[in-house]
Amino acid sequence: MNPRRERLWHGSLFDWWSGDQGRSSGYKFPRAFFRRGGHGKIPVTGTSLALPVINEAARKLLALLRSAEVAGRSLKTLLIRASQQGKVSAQIYVKEKVVAQQISRHALEALGLAGIELIYSDPHSPASVVSERLMSVGSGTLTDEILGIPFHYATEGFFQINLPVYEMVLRDMQIFVLADRPVIDLYSGVGSIGLTIGGKNPTLVEISGSAVAEMRRNLRALGRHANIVHASSESALEYINSNATIIVDPPRAGLHEKVIQELLIKAPERIIYLSCNPVTQARDVMMLSETYGIREHIGYNFFPRTPHIEHLVILDRK
């Protein structure tokens, strides 16, 4: 297990918490986290899990919502991210479009953030989906360096939030990338794995349109070549081949069953599997165990003082 003492994270998610259906100016209207293992919420005044600039941005946004007398029932989620340089971008997800009439563009500009968006999110979906972008000020794209390579990413896009530990992971992964073999990077996001340790011409497979757009932008800025595939991993099985190093970094649900079956059929020599959910990773490794054995596994403390770890498993064909 690789520990990390420093609590340095540059992104955090705040969910609105409301005790009634009244106006936000009529009660405290604090930020909140979801209660672990349930649907309830725990109100917080701030969080040590975020950089100070994130807490400060949240304070300003709450003050704006109170002054605009936005109804608590209209609000869904506040997402705030910051780059390592302290550049802050935010998104306010709302369940009622009327909020766009209550908050002026000038008021959003006065917050002084690099970018901020007001987004209508389908109230029937529990997730903070982007149904319609109602108002946008500034840029919703942030930039950070990973192993000396700059990466652009959208506010709502997936991007690791503890970069010092992430760089540690990438260095460990790089050791196991087979020389002179093509790299296939599934669930590639904006390309932060494939474009750092994937060699000269990796294949990057990603389902998110916004992530693919940022990936293309990153590729152009680097002057690099890569085969970018805009598709889900389970619908891009033809790119898995026996001669490649396969890198997977799936969401918490783990690998799609079709991906596992294709890996068993094509049987590449090595699979590098990074996971944010060791439970589903263990399930997947068991399914692959008829063909693969564990060469190495390492845990990483991405989120100190929480029960979450990232886990890296190196699988070699038997």
Can you describe what's shown?
The radius of gyration is 21 Å and the shape is elongated. It folds into two domains: 11-139, OB fold (Dihydrolipoamide Acetyltransferase, E2P); 161-317, Vaccinia Virus protein VP39 (Rossmann fold), CATH 3.40.50. The model is unreliable at 1-28 (pLDDT under 50). The strands form three sheets. The protein has a seven-stranded mixed beta sheet. A seven-stranded mixed beta sheet has the order 12-11-10-13-14-16-15, with helices on both faces. It has a two-stranded antiparallel ribbon with strand order 8-9. It is built from eight helices and 16 strands. It has 318 residues and is α/β, with parallel strands linked by helices. Helix content is 24%, strand content 29%.
SSE blueprint and pairings:
Layout: E1 11-16, E2 31-34, E3 41-44, H1 52-67, E4 75-82, E5 88-94, H2 99-102, H3 105-109, E6 115-120, E7 132-138, E8 141-146, E9 149-154, H4 163-175, E10 183-186, H5 194-197, E11 203-206, H6 209-222, E12 227-230, E13 245-248, H7 257-266, E14 270-275, H8 278-288, E15 292-300, E16 310-317
Parallel strand pairs: 5-6, 10-11, 10-13, 11-12, 13-14
Antiparallel strand pairs: 1-2, 1-4, 2-3, 4-5, 6-7, 8-9, 14-16, 15-16
